[in-house]
Amino acid sequence: MSGAPPASVAPSVPVPVPETEGTSETSGPSEASGAPSGGGPVRRIALGSASGIVPLARDFTRQALYDWGWLPAATADRRAAAEDVLLVVSELVTNACLHAEGPEELRVGCDGKVLRLEVTDRGAGQPAPRTPHRAGRPGGHGMFIVQRLCLDWGVVRVPGAPGKTVWAELAAPE
Question: 3-state DSSP call for residue 79?
Fold first, then answer.
């Protein structure tokens, strides 16, 4: 895990997303992120017009964790790993709601060793942990939590296109 927020991001090629409601699953790397994935399954859900977006994103991710064998958790460590994933999803989607004109899509991928979360939004801002972090002060903890729980995180922008994708990677439980 990096101690400082990631700097700039590399341009990438957007992945077309079907204009359907619901979810889809594909295999292979998520090209929208600009960073390699291990080629495992990737699930995606459109969030743009949904209501109750944060609980929807958590439920969608929880179902993927069940389908991929993370849940039900056989040990406390595995349960904690799954809860960390759900917390990071909540933080990324909430940040998109509060600071980026709302999330468009959530992608969840797992290659067996790393679980990658990607939230695409319409915002122009740059997420960063609040510095200095003040534990007793309300608000502003989202990206600090993401930074602390994740192996790495970053932001990808497509030149000439609005919005961005904020991604985060967590270690799969052993």
Answer: helix
Provide the whole-model pTM. 0.76
Q: How far apart are CA 140 and CA 76, in angstroms?
A: 28
- Structure letter (DSSP) for residue 50: -
pLDDT tens readout for residues 84-135? 999 999 999 999 998 898 999 999 999 989 999 999 999 988 877 666 556 6
142 contacts: CB under 8 Å, gap ≥ 6: 91, 92, 94, 95, 127
Q: What are the DSSP calls for 108-119, one per residue?
A: EEE-SSEEEEEE
CA distances from 76 to 58, 67, 72, 73, 103 (A): 20, 19, 11, 7, 31
Cα gap 85→105, rounded to integer Å: 17
Q: How many helices (H) and strands (E) does the chain have?
A: 3, 6
**15-69 per-position pLDDT tens digit:** 333 333 344 454 433 444 444 345 789 999 999 878 899 999 999 999 999 999 9
DSSP letter at 159 equals T
Judge contact between 156 and 167, C-beta under 8 A. Answer: yes
